[in-house]
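[User] I have long wanted to understand how a fold can be written as tokens. Those tokens are not coordinates but codes from a learned vocabulary of shapes. Could you go through the record with me and say what the backbone is doing? Thank you; the sequence and its tokens follow:
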Amino acid sequence: MTELSISTIAGVFDAIVAGPPEGRPVLLLHGFPQTGLVWQRQIAALAAYGYRVVAPDQRGYSPGARPQRPEDYRMDLLVDDVVAITEELGWAAFDLVGHDWGGAVAWWTAHAHPGRVRTLTVVSTPHPGALATALRTDQDQRERSHYMIDWRDTPATEERMLARDAQELRELYAGKVPQDSAEAYVRHLSQPGALTAALNWYRAGRPGGEIGVIEVPTLYVWSTEDSAFGPAAAQGSRQWTNGPYRFETLQGVSHWVPEEAPETLSRLLLEHLRTHSGYGTATRTPLIDSPKR
């Protein structure tokens, strides 16, 4: 894995990249409060099978793409970032993977650009339509999502999360994220303006427009101990897809799936990509049957 800077009209995005340049392209989107580092185990697994994998630090997490206003973190702009990054990489089509907020961006990107997204994999985050329904009808989901309202307070939330050597920020990882990774996230988000930028994702307001059904092959991975997303929204995501769909439930796993269950997630992701290796019309690199050594 190496580091890469990707220059776009929105700014410069830092990224981790691995795999042969000619490999089938996969973009991985992280969530809060993490960075592209969250995908390091999946990056290694995919690169070993010949994929070209890029995991950017998204808007606000990359110092070179860190606007100050909450309205600069609207969903349409986050989707535009995905398009701009992949265009800069020269990817006409790509497989898209997202976790947490990265999962939300992935759902919206697959809806807005089905001709470019070859396959979709979302970890933890339900389809936005299913989540909206659950928030209206399911008390459990309303209680799980109440933190989003609390975190919109500024600068109180930043001050509270970073107080006492970032104790509250560290507690969010619930001991499920490897300590070295958690420390890296805390260092990154302790930089001036970084945590405010990350929290601006919650302060940007509701996405403009409406999201419909997803047409591309979709893998959705949800875990039973996820504190943010309950079963109603997770199970309701199926009705918001109109293409091949696979729903996997990980028993006893928390919200931090990529790091708590890395081998399982990597296996599911590789199976999904292999199953739909022929989907779409863009030029593709065939999946190699064994890892590259």
Notes: Residues 2-275 form a domain with the Rossmann fold fold (CATH 3.40.50.1820). The chain has a mean pLDDT of 94. The chain is about 40% helix and 20% strand. The longest strand covers residues 245-254.
